[in-house]
Amino acid sequence: MLTNYVYKLQPNVTQSHEMVRWIDMLRSHYNWCLNDRISQYNQKFIQGDYCDIRTKAEACPISCFVSKNGASGEPWKQDNQNTIVPMGEYCLLPYDLNNLPYSGKTPRRSVGDIQITALPVLKVARPWYAEIDSTVLQQNVKRLDTAYENFFNGNGFPKFKNRSNFTSFTYQVGFKVSGNKIYLPKLGWMRFYDSRPIPPGFVIKAATVRKRQDGWYISVRIEDKTVPDYVPLPLSEVNKVIGCDLGIVKLIHLSDGHQIDNPKFATNKKTRRILKVRQRRVSQKKKNSNNQKRASRAVGRLHKKIADKRQAYQWEIADAIVSRKVDAIGVEHLNIAGILRRCKVKIDDNTGRFLPNGQSRKKYLNRAISDASWNELILKIDYLAAKQGKIVVKINPKNSSIECRNCGYIDKASRDNEKFICSQCGHHEHADIGAAKTIRDRVIELIEYQKVHGDCVEPADKTAKRPKKRKEKSARSTLSKRVEPGNPKSKGENPETGIQEDIA
Ligand SMILES: [Zn+2]
């Protein structure tokens, strides 16, 4: 079994400064690698010269190549373990397929491998990188690999990192723990708050050091292969189900009639006020002064405190839901990014000016939704449920709150905030608890279906996901669209055929 334990570190001043420096260097290395992959993707070999297809300018030679399946640049693993070819030199040689420099028997190298092999070159050119532990540097490249992997699986394109979203580095080997001290290579022994003992039999596989607003934390990944993973209950053995409907006014409505409060940690009146005051203090201080830095640290600490409170509360209620006498918990399958998406821009055809589109109203709702952080809560419920041998079933919540539970009539007018009165038959109940019950019933329906038809088939009724309709793109959205390197879809190519489609 693999799990993570987090401890707070107590570095001394030198170590703390050193770690800040490392993070700065690693961030710039990460951004360099990302830029390298992007510019390589945009380079084409035309008439004996490399040229950037975006700017049509002469481009630097390739040092790596990004594609889903392989890499070029230094594409073949070397047969004879030669010393590493200096960067920039091997790139200049266009590969003649009949006269390959290497036999071609060995497998192609991934772009991550190429960039990892280039690390010693980096250390020669910029000696201060040699002060960083080598596994940390390697993990830094692998982090970008993971970002690309996520992208190829349908998530967003890897972003360039700044100080606020690049705050950690990872060790793969070399650390030791003794009592309340941990040894980190090239940083030395460091004390930490030994808040929970590592269970006997577990070995540390990796350690990630992270800077947060109130100090440094270390997250150790521990593994014991003899301990089995948590196995979720098979659907066919589920007997009792509870449905959860997520909301803003109340965080959760349960199908047994219970409601759980939403304390709105970041968006309640008091916190909003404190945040506003503290942010004003930052903006009123002299720019880049020590006073301003101190004031912005205070804002950061407040955000950290809010996040910590939310975490604690969510664990508490997740535990309360999971410890009920049920076998399965039905939750909504939500597309939060879709819910938070900005309203479509409206433009006056005659004047070309922007018209009100309701975004300023939606802003406050979006903040409340982010504050509730439903996805985080569902993850916690999922984790705790697996621990107790229970299962979480995600179900399509479509129409769950406007469908009559008596006659099945779907009408938006039936719902008036939390009251539900059916416009067809007059049936009335609490709208959200009704929705929770509908979710529960849909889970039961799914389970019944799978008991009859086997586990692998999904019902083709309303709970199944419908294929998405292709939306017409507005003029603005095509204008601002970025060409995303390595993504066959981003340039309007058909991913199956690789043929350019005309999307304009
Ligand atoms: Zn009805």
Automatic annotation (TrEMBL):
<feature type="domain" description="Cas12f1-like TNB">
    <location>
        <begin position="374"/>
        <end position="439"/>
    </location>
</feature>
<protein>
    <recommendedName>
        <fullName>Transposase</fullName>
    </recommendedName>
</protein>
<keyword id="KW-0479">Metal-binding</keyword>
<dbReference type="GO" id="GO:0046872">
    <property type="term" value="F:metal ion binding"/>
</dbReference>
<dbReference type="GO" id="GO:0032196">
    <property type="term" value="P:transposition"/>
</dbReference>
<feature type="domain" description="Probable transposase IS891/IS1136/IS1341">
    <location>
        <begin position="225"/>
        <end position="340"/>
    </location>
</feature>
<dbReference type="InterPro" id="IPR021027">
    <property type="entry name" value="Transposase_put_HTH"/>
</dbReference>
<dbReference type="GO" id="GO:0003677">
    <property type="term" value="F:DNA binding"/>
</dbReference>
<keyword id="KW-0815">Transposition</keyword>
<dbReference type="Pfam" id="PF01385">
    <property type="entry name" value="OrfB_IS605"/>
</dbReference>
<dbReference type="Pfam" id="PF12323">
    <property type="entry name" value="HTH_OrfB_IS605"/>
</dbReference>
<dbReference type="Pfam" id="PF07282">
    <property type="entry name" value="Cas12f1-like_TNB"/>
</dbReference>
<keyword id="KW-0862">Zinc</keyword>
<dbReference type="GO" id="GO:0006310">
    <property type="term" value="P:DNA recombination"/>
</dbReference>
<dbReference type="InterPro" id="IPR001959">
    <property type="entry name" value="Transposase"/>
</dbReference>
<feature type="domain" description="Transposase putative helix-turn-helix">
    <location>
        <begin position="1"/>
        <end position="43"/>
    </location>
</feature>
<feature type="region of interest" description="Disordered">
    <location>
        <begin position="458"/>
        <end position="504"/>
    </location>
</feature>
<dbReference type="InterPro" id="IPR010095">
    <property type="entry name" value="Cas12f1-like_TNB"/>
</dbReference>
<feature type="region of interest" description="Disordered">
    <location>
        <begin position="278"/>
        <end position="299"/>
    </location>
</feature>
<comment type="similarity">
    <text>In the C-terminal section; belongs to the transposase 35 family.</text>
</comment>
<keyword id="KW-0233">DNA recombination</keyword>
<keyword id="KW-0238">DNA-binding</keyword>
